[in-house]
Amino acid sequence: MTEPDSLDTLAVNTLRGLCIDAVEQANSGHPGTPMGIAPVAYTLWQKFLRFDPQDTIWLNRDRFVLSEGHASALLWSLLYLTGVRAVDPDYEVLGRPAVTLEDLKTFRQLDSKCPGHPEYRWTSGVETTTGPLGQGVATSVGMAIAGRWLAARYNQPGFTLFDYDVYALAGDGCMMEGVSAEAASLAGHLQLANLCWIYDSNRITIEGYTDITFTEDVAARFLAYGWNVVTVADANDLDAVGRAFHTFRAETERPTLVVVHSHIGYGSPVEDTPKAHGSPLGPEGVRAAKRFLGLPEDENFHVPEGVPEHFARGIGARGGELRDGWVELFESYRRAYPAFAEELSRIQRRELPEGWDTELPEFPADEKGLATRESSGQVLNALARRVPWLVGGSADLAPSTKTRLEFDDAGDFQAATPSGRNLHLGVREHASAAVANGMALTKLRPYWSGFLIFSDYAKAAIRLSALMEIPSIHIFTHDSIGVGEDGPTHQPVEQLAGLRAMPGLLVFRPADANEVTETWRVVARLHHEPAALVLSRQALPTLDRSRFAPASGVARGAYVLADAPDGGVPDVILLATGSEVSLALSAREELAGEGIGARVVSMPCWELFDRQEREYRDQVLPPSVTARVGVEQASTFGWERYVGDRGAVIGMHTYGASAPLKQLLKQFGFTPERVAQAARDLVAAARRDATG
Questions:
Q1: Which residues pair with residue 602 across a beta bridge?
Q2: pTM check: above 0.70
Q3: Rounded average pLDDT over 202-217
Q4: What amino acid positions are annotated as catalytic residues?
């Protein structure tokens, strides 16, 4: 019988061999990192990770995040050898494996379950999409925050439902990225003792050894953040690796950084160089590596007898026992705390509670109105009172973004008060968005907020929320040159176009308070799409819905707000979003006095409008009406698809300026007179064309 120590070594080397072969067969990928760090990943999964391969969505599972996503071959090999089962979109565990040996053989190929980097919702067992370095560790902070919050709300005496840990495996590149520094600083402040980052310090990146770029004392930096730091001198020392994880589990007041010194190519005859990190080993390198590991040199994707069974006796048996015990505990909990149990069932399936929208406000007509950031704050509070797992905060701007939950039991999330629903994320926009993603992956409904201009700092994490199809809520205020005296550094111009360019992201720019309510009504029901709410700093009139169409048209992305006065086919269509809708309405009145029939179309969400059937879109924007004016205090990029080549767009072609709002509006042409004149010109041109 094979001794346990020998089985450990054999299992580690089997992981290495599968990674070598996957990369070699694809002729693409990174073999060095997975080979070097395989002993650490093996020790974590086989001996510590509380994870049931038969139920990858068990609520109290430990989370494993491969932040150095270029080492994905290691994760695919682990999922295969541990027998992880797939989950379907309805969150039902299926009998088929998440990864088969055939999947490994198609690593990095079209439609393979083993893509080049881990992709959430594509392969079961992947907790988050990684690849852009630093994103994984930053997202893991959100998972850890969610774990603390879930425990604070739902754990009861005798019922510890939530005590999971979050592990993230990171490399030198992750540690260089700014987002990881933001996230680590926040995690240290919040004392997230359920968080462990494993720093694979192999001292090599694509360009070469890290001594050409990265010579800081990472351990000292994390100690300054308030982390516990443990060092493992050799990644191949399984006992030392195990002691490090025991140290993490014993820590109750700080997150833990385990610094592991590893070698690209694991110290084999394969040359310890950046080439071994970033490209296949080649036939001779493969044979040399396998010879060193004691694997058959000429057999690919070799899985020695007894290795899968070894994993089954380890993580398989332990994870199954822990999961079964938790399910039994939850059934008792359901009888003792049925309301909380019902909440958890809804959270898992992203279902809203009964009566979730009963308190959403309807705003009376008001010429003075209020800023959409103000109305959004009111709607958010009304929604949050009915949806207890709606949790979020701001990147240090809650007084400006109006995103603080003000009701009595909302509270602040801090180390000593983890049941609080107001997060204070600090001046950390990139980490804020990544943290929200981590919370969404844990099935809470998170939001974060900042100024629209600073969405640029968070763009990578916003993009990943769309790529992963998770309903993170990104709230942006100060949406235009309406910021005024703060000047062009704070006045967004191209940001709206950039957000709209992201596939799968719904971008809303509501025109008044009631459009804000309807925006939140749509956003609250999203299951697989993130949303960006783009809101004004300045007050906007609350439209009289007895004169104009109901704001429920938001659900279709765009709608006819006000038609031509005679109700017939309009002479011109004025299209606008946000603060410019009321401007278009004023221009419509001016044109009506001249006998020009103008239709005003509010377009709060282009993406939803583009999904509507052709019949509806043609009703809103009749193809026969070519005189169209788009109005938006942003880049004109993208408007051509709605106004056509015979239309006009009044927008921003430069950056803004520092001046009071009224002066800026006049300077850049956002006045009823300018809009009306553009409409007159287009109507005249259309009439000339019609008469030949």
A1: 559, 576
A2: yes
A3: 82
A4: 429
